[in-house]
Amino acid sequence: MPTALSPLQIRDTCFQWGQQTYLMGVLNVTPDSFSDGGQFNTVEAALQQAEAMVEAGVHMVDIGGQSTRPQAEDVSLEEELERVVPVIQAIRQAGLTIPISVDTTKAAVAQSAVIAGADLINDISGAIFDPDMLATVADLQVPIVLMHLRGTPKTMQQLTDYEDVVEAITAFLQQRVAAARAAGIASDRIILDPGIGFAKTFDQNLEILRRLPQLRELGLPLLVGTSRKSFIGHLLNQPDPKQRLWGTAATCCAAIRGGADILRVHDVAELRDVCRVADAIWRSDER
């Protein structure tokens, strides 16, 4: 696996890409996310979950106030801000120094979140939905995750016709990286996400996992999010997302073998153990 990527310092954490797998813990402060909607949509519940994830060994917390499940409706700027900003403030007021990522496609949310104490922007649209996003992130001088997506969460599952899904993802991400750099975002602040489950079929999701090394050749850190997703449920005949932990674990092992740097997960404690063992197998020569 490539090991020459520049490290990224966020607060007290130095992300040494290639040396280990890092966990991004999902904290959805929404009523309608596909597997945990309504569980953490109060400030108190969200803070307790953030504290539990930190205790379990998470490396960063990803806070989202807009569901991105298939068929999800967009929420207003005001509603998203009301969901996200108080949670960030509560985490910081509690004294937690864990890096905070904000899962948003809105530049105004990104700006308010960083002012409140967030450190990273995770944009599922690859910074396409809001034309001000890249300039805002450049001004804030924070890292950004650029993900591949076609359409919107409401329309994406009708847009899965690719001649070659990995080639299409590669071309899209190359274009978005070029746009980010042109906007003034430094290369060492860009992370890429192939968007598993977003405008992808069951077979395409598996193909992406098999061909992750091809995406690693883009020369930037890779984030992979498979946690509890429907293609795992399809394989296991398991309609309940919360019962897909061990299927998720298998995909996490595949992602690590393919060179993923960050895994976005719901079940931190269990998948931290998975990462430790998988890292010992596949990253032992890089330590």
Give the topology.
Layout: E1 8-10, E2 13-15, E3 22-28, H1 43-56, E4 60-64, H2 77-93, E5 100-103, H3 107-116, E6 120-123, H4 133-140, E7 144-147, H5 165-182, E8 190-193, H6 202-210, H7 212-216, E9 223-224, H8 230-236, H9 245-257, E10 262-265, H10 268-282
Parallel strand pairs: 3-4, 3-10, 4-5, 5-6, 6-7, 7-8, 9-10
Antiparallel strand pairs: 1-2
Helix pairs in contact: 1-2, 2-3, 3-4, 9-10
- The name of the CATH topology is TIM Barrel
Largest sheet: 8 strands, parallel
Rounded mean pLDDT is: 93
Assembly status = single chain
> Which structural class do the helices and strands define?
alpha/beta
Lateral strand order in the biggest sheet: 8-7-6-5-4-3-10-9
Intertermini distance? 12 Å
Query: What is the element string, with H for helices and E for strands?
Result: EEEHEHEHEHEHEHHEHHEH
Low-confidence stretches: none
Which percent bin holds the helix content? 40-55%
The CATH homologous superfamily is called: Dihydropteroate synthase-like
Number of helices: 10
Describe this structure in words.
The protein has helices at residues 43-56, 77-93, 107-116, 133-140, 165-182, 202-210, 212-216, 230-236, 245-257, 268-282; strands spanning 8-10, 13-15, 22-28, 60-64, 100-103, 120-123, 144-147, 190-193, 223-224, 262-265. It has 287 residues and is an alpha/beta fold. The strands form 2 sheets. The protein has an 8-stranded parallel sheet. Strands 1-2 form a two-stranded antiparallel sheet. It is globular. It contains 10 helices and 10 strands. The termini are close together. It has a single domain (19-281), classed as TIM Barrel (Alpha-Beta Barrel).
